What does this fold into?
Amino acid sequence: MKKLLKLSPVLILAILLSSCSSVRVVADYDKEVNFNQYKSFAFFKPGIDKAEISDLDKRRILRAIEAELLAKGMTKSETPDMLVSIFTKEREQVNVYNNGFGPYGYGWGWSPWYWNNFNSVSTTTEGILYIDLIDAKRKELVWQGQGVGYLTHNMKEKDERIKEFVFKILEKYPPEEKE
It folds into this structure.
C-alpha cells in the first residue's frame, strides 16, 4: 500500500502528460452515411490545388494522409469510393509579456533608478488543417476533420509535425457508431 501511495503522484503525472496533445482535433460527419462502404480513395486535385501552402508541404500532407488511410485498410484507386481533399489556414499570434507590477515597477528586477518595463514580444504561427472526405459518386462531403496546432519552420521537425496533425485528425475516422 505504501508503494502505491509513493507511486501515485508519478502515475497521475504520467497520465496527464500522455493525455495532452499539441494538436486539437474535431470531426464532423453525415450521420446517415455508412462509412463501411468506403474501401478505396483518390485525391481530389481541384480541391488540393486551392490549398494556400507550398507544394512541398502539400506533398508532405498527402503522403501522410495516404499512409494513414492505407493503414486503415483502404486502397488507392483510379475509380475510388471516396475523394480526399485538404484545406489549410494559418494565423500569426503576437504575445506580449510584461513582468512589471503596478505603475511603480515593483516586482522582479526592480531598481530605484528606472521603471520596471521589461516587455518581451514573441510570435507563433497557428495552423489549421482540414481533411475533407467526399463521396465519389454523389460528390458530397461526408466527413471533415480539423486539426489546430502550432506550426514549426524547423525543417527537421516539419515532417513529424505534419504526420502528427494528420494522424490525430484521421484518428477520428471512421466515426464510432453509437448505439
